[in-house]
Amino acid sequence: MLGVDLKGQGKVTISDVFYDIVKEKKMIKSSKTGPTYNLESMLFEEALYQSKDFDFIALGPKWFEGCYCAPDLFLGEIMSRWSDNYEYIIVDSPAGVEHLNRRITKNVKDFFNILDPSKKSFDNAKRTHRIIEEVSINYENYYLVGGFRFPEELNKKAEKQPFKYLGKVAHDEEVMEKNFQGNSLLELPETSRAYKSVKDILRKAGYDKKVLSLSDLLNV
């Protein structure tokens, strides 16, 4: 959605790095600290996209049979190692709970669970919160947010949930058009309905002193 063309920038995903190691037989030192150090260097050089507004790294597709254990492990490791370099870190996760079970992120200030208009989505919000508690992820707040397809008539149902509901992202034709054309959402004007609604949601979550412009919003 941010319009980052990793290949165009000479970058790859975490899974691509592991694919190269396994399939292309890239050398990794076998000393006690060697593998971690070399993998971290490879991920920094090959997978981390950096710009003046934000840095970005993607887990990528699963190239092998089985689980995501190795890429997940190192995603968690580099997040722990690199987190002090950033004021804010955003983790965009799928609706599943696999990443939570593995505690890829162990310390989180705010969880934002995005709802769609379905019973499954509400059930997922409860299940996600339960797993966060069960695997002992440290966090401060767990919020619900209606996605852009979330109808106004379900707001009352969302407000009755055991978690704080912050409102919904406004449907915005400008966002739809940019998504369809494959353009970056960084190009959205600050008059965008979606941008304004997200800004209001973040204010309710306590980011009012930080969210001042579109560039600030995208760095929260």
Written description of the protein model:
By secondary structure, this protein is α/β, with parallel strands linked by helices. The chain has a domain at 1-86. The chain has nine helices and five strands; from the N terminus they run ααββααβαβαβααα. The strands form two sheets. A three-stranded parallel beta sheet has the order 3-4-5, with helices on both faces. A two-stranded antiparallel ribbon has the order 1-2. α6 (155-159) links the parallel β4 (138-146) and β5 (164-168). It is globular and about 55 Å long. 15% of the residues are buried. Mean pLDDT is 82; it is low at 27-36 and 211-220.
Number of strands: 5
Q: What do the pLDDT scores average to? A: 82
| Strand residue percentage | 5-15%
SSE pattern: HHEEHHEHEHEHHH
Q: Which blocks of ≥5 consecutive residues have pLDDT under 50?
A: 27-36, 211-220
Structural class: alpha/beta
* Secondary structure tally, helices: 9
Cross-sheet strand order for the largest sheet: 3-4-5
Range of helix content: 40-55%
How far apart, in Å, are the first and last alpha carbons?
A: 15 Å
* Rg measurement, Å: 19 Å
Main beta sheet: 3 strands, parallel
What is the molecular shape? globular
